[in-house]
Amino acid sequence: MCQLLGMNCNTPTDVTFSFRGFAQRGGHTDQHSDGWGIAFFEGDGSPGGDKGLRHFVDHQSAWESPVAELIRRYPIKSRNVIAHIRKATQGRVALENCHPFVRELWGRYWVFAHNGDLKDFSPRLHGSFKPVGSTDSERAFCWIMQELAKSHAGVPSVEELSLTLRELSAQIAGFGTFNFLLSNGQALWAHASTSLYYVERRHPFAHATLSDEDVTVNFAEQTNPTDRVALVVTAPLTTNECWAAFQAGELKVFVGGVLVVSGKPLTASALLPKGN
């Protein structure tokens, strides 16, 4: 299956160190070679969150892609980043099937990436959100956006969004493996069906060594004491940091580089009916 990488911070931070190790799994240290993508939220740091977005996808493997090489070398700074390397299960290897996917809702960009396989997931999409490609992942994203728009008249608080997303995630997870990352530039939501890990980096910062490449960085030399950085990944990226595993069915929410909400899904009275 695919692999996920998410970063949430309290100050614009570059993800080049983590992406360098992550990209190795796109055809070099692992077999996730069916495309990749990354999205960076950027803005002026206003309380409403960053609204601007840089979005790169490529159907080539992250290990071989010239665009991935650009990201490894170009330190784009962002408070919220989502990256994905693909091992195709549904949908051909093509640019339109590369994650992360992007949609607009309530005047904001939303970014989504999924790891897993949803069987017979064919929701009725009757609003503005329709898939461009042929993946189960994009269908799930479109349905989430549709249901969020139906549930809230405008941009709700992070807490309200988290409650709604817990309900929606529980319904979709009934169709298979549903590990995902979602962000609108205000927060990073992460849901695990099987495998997700996270680490929070804060003062005092230390050295970290990549699992997939012999590279070490001393974060103390690159950060300020007030910096907060949270990373979420499918499998730990470093060998000498304390990565914590998600529980199955757990949704975690990160704001400003700190875990603010964590919980198992709400009990759903019934799964999403097929075809509805």
Word description of this protein:
With 276 residues, this protein is of the alpha+beta class. It has one domain (3-263): 4-Layer Sandwich (Glutamine Phosphoribosylpyrophosphate, subunit 1, domain 1), CATH 3.60.20.10. The chain has 4 helices and 15 strands. The chain has helices at residues 16-24, 66-73, 136-151, 158-173, and strands spanning 3-14, 36-42, 52-58, 77-85, 101-105, 108-115, 179-183, 188-192, 197-202, 207-209, 216-218, 228-233, 244-245, 250-255, 258-263. The strands form 3 sheets. It has a 7-stranded antiparallel β-sheet, with helices on one face. Strands 5-6-7-8-14-15 form a 6-stranded antiparallel β-sheet, with helices on one face. Helix 3 packs across helix 4 (158-173). The longest helix has 16 residues, at 136-151. It is globular, with a radius of gyration of 17 Å. The model is unreliable at 267-276 (pLDDT under 50).
Attribute tags:
single chain; 276 residues; alpha+beta; Glutamine Phosphoribosylpyrophosphate, subunit 1, domain 1; 7-stranded antiparallel beta sheet; 6-stranded antiparallel beta sheet; 4 helices; 18% helix; globular
Task: Tell me the layout of helices and strands.
Layout lengths: L2 E12 L1 H9 L11 E7 L9 E7 L7 H8 L3 E9 L15 E5 L2 E8 L20 H16 L6 H16 L5 E5 L4 E5 L4 E6 L4 E3 L6 E3 L9 E6 L10 E2 L4 E6 L2 E6 L13
Antiparallel strand pairs: 1-4, 1-12, 2-3, 2-4, 5-6, 6-7, 7-8, 8-14, 9-12, 9-13, 10-11, 14-15
